[in-house]
Amino acid sequence: MTISLRFLRRLKKLREFFSLLVRNRMGLVGLAIIIFFLTLALFAPFLRTVNPTKVGTSENILLPPSSQFWLGTDDLAKDVWSQIVYGSRISLTVGFLAAIITVFTGSLIGLIAGFYGGKIGEVLMRIVDFFMMLPMLPLMIVLAAVLGPNIWNIIFVISIVSWPTTARVIRSQVLSLKERTFIEAARCIGASDSLLMFGEILPNVVPIMFAESVLMVTEAIYAEAVLSFLGLGDPMNISWGMMLHFAFESGTMGKAFWWVLPPIACIVILIIGFTFLGTAITDVLEPGYKEAHGF
Amino acid sequence: MGLKEFVIKKIIAAIITIFAIVSVNFVIFRMAPGDPVRMMFRDPRISGEQMQLIREKFGLDKPLWGQFIFYLKELSHGDLGLSFWQRRPVREVIAERIPQTLLLVLTALAIAMISGTILGAFSGWKRGTRVDSFILALSLTMYSIPAFSLGIILLLIFAYTLSIFPLGGMTTPASGLTGLGYWKDVLWHMCLPAFSIVMWYIGEYVLLTRSSMLDTLRKDYILTARAKGLKESTILINHALRNALLPVITITGVNIGFAVCGVIEVETVFSWPGIGRLVYDAVMKRDYPLLQGLFLVFAISVVLANLVIDLIYGYIDPRIKVGGEKK
Description:
Chain A: The chain crosses the membrane at residues 21-44, 90-116, 256-281. Chain A: It is found in: Cell membrane. The complex is a heterodimer of chains A (295) and B (327). Chain A is 77% helix and 0% strand. Chain A is mostly helical and 295 residues long. In chain A, helix 6 packs across helix 7 (151-177). Chain A is elongated. The mean pLDDT of chain A is 86. Chain B is globular and about 90 Å long. With 327 residues, chain B is mainly α. Chain B has 15 helices and no strands. Chain B is 76% helix and 0% strand. Chain A binds chain B through residues 130, 133-139, 141-143, 145-148, 218, 222, 225-226, 229-232, 244, 248, 253-255, 257, 260-261, 264, 267-268, 271-272, 275, and chain B through 17, 20-21, 24, 28-29, 31-33, 140-141, 144-146, 148-149, 152-153, 155-156, 159-161, 167, 257-258, 260-262, 264-265, 268-269, 279-280, 282-284, 286, 288, 291-292, 294-295, 298-299, 302-303, 306.
C-alpha cells in the first residue's frame, strides 16, 4: 500500500517535471533534436538508401549530391547519407552508455565518500583530485591507442576519464543532505547505513544525477568525435568522427564539401540538443522555478 | 598556516602527483600490444641472441618491478626512450616541437583573453539588452562546436574555396625566406589555427567575465562611485572591471596548462608542426614510446601550471597568509 502510494506520488512528480520541461523553450528544442536523431538511429535500416559499408564502383567516386546519392559519395564511392544515418547509432550509443556508466560510478563513489567522510572519504577524494588533475584528452588518446580501436574501449575510456566530476558533485550534495533532520530521524529509528544511503539520500540526489547524465552525454559525444577524428575510432562501426577522419586523410576534403559538412553539422546539432536539454533540466529543477514562471 | 608552510605543502603535493603520473604512465604502456623490440627493429633476420642483447640494453629482461625502477632511472636522466617511428630519442623529437606549440598557444590565448574579457565586460555592463543576448548566444554556440570541426570549416572556406590562407603547415615550403619575410610567412600560416583556438576559448572568457562583472556591479562601492558622480566609463574601468578580473586570471593559468592539450585537435587539422600534431602522428604510427613521452609532457605541464596558480594565489590572497584552509 505505502509502496504504491509512494510510486504514484513519484509518477505524478515525474509527469509534472516533463510538462515543465516541454514548456521550457530550450527544453523543447533540445528534446526535438534528440528525438530526430533517435529516429534516425532506430530506423536506420529503412532510412538508408545504399548499404553504407558497400564500396561502390569507380565511376561513382566523389559524386556530388543527386537523387540517387542524397548526400553524394566518398572516395570509395560509399553513400554519405547512409553513413550519416548509421553514424547516429554510434554517437547515441557511445553518448548514452558512457553517460550511464560515468554517472553510476561517480554517484556511487560520491555517495560513499560523502556519507562516510573520515578516512574513506579522504582517500576517495584524493583519487578524484588526482584524476581531475590529469589532462583529459591526452589520457583518453593514450588509453584508446593502447587498448585498440573498438567501440567498447571508447566507451570505457570516456567513462574512466569522466567519473570524478560526477563524484565531486554528488559528494557535495550528500554532505549537505546528511545533516538534514530526516536523516537524523531515520537514524534514530535504527535505519542501517545502507538503508540511509540508498533509501533516504539516493532518492534526493536522483534529479541531480539525471541532469549530470544529460550533460555527460554531450561530453561523451564530443569525446567520441574527437577520438574518431584522430584515427582512434572503430573501423567496423563508421561514426561521424570517422567520416571526417577518412575525408581528412584522403586529401580530397577540399573538393567534396558534401562529405565533410553533414557529419560536422550532425555532431554540432546533437551536442547543442543535449546542451539545451541539460540546461533546461537544471533550470526546471531549480527550487522556485514553477512559481517564478507562473505555472 | 604561514606562507612558507603553504608553499612547501603545495610543492610536495605537486611532486607526489607527478610521481603518480609517472607510475600510471608506466602501467598504461605495459598494456600496449606487441613486443617493443620487434616494433623497433622490424627485421626478421635479427637472431635470438641479438634480441636478447637489445632486451638487456633496454632493461626488458627484468621482471616488471625491475623494469619500473629501470624506467625511473632513465627518466631521472631525462631519457624518454626511443621513438619507433623516427628512430631517435623521444626527448629530441618532442623538444624540437615545443616552441611552435608555445608560439601558437600563447598568441591565441592572449587574443582570446583580451577580446573575451572586453566582450564579457561589455555584455555584463549592458545586461539584458539585445547586444548582451547576442554575445551570450554566440559564446554558447562556439562553446559547443568541437575545435577540430571549426578548424575544418575554416579550412574549407578560407583555404580551399577562397584561397586566402594556406592549407596548413607553419611556413611555405622551400620559400627560402629570411628575417621579416619569414615571420610574415609564419604569421600568415598562423591566422586560421590561432583563430580556431581563440574561438574555442573566447566563450569561456566571455561567460566568466560577464558573471563576475554582474557580481561586482551589485557591490556597494559601485553605488558609492555612482553617488560621487563619477563618469560611467571611469566606474566601468577603474571600479568594476578591475575587481571582476581576478577569476579571469585564475582561469588563464588553468587554460595555459590545458591549452597545450586543446591544440591537439587544431594542430592536427592545420598540420601545425607542434606537439599536438605530434600526438596525431604518434597515434597513426602506433609509436608508443613517443606517445608515452608526450603524455608525460602534457600531464606535467598541467600540474606545474596549477602549482604556479596556487602559489600566485597564496601570495595575493591575504586569507591564506593569515591561516585556515578553505572548507
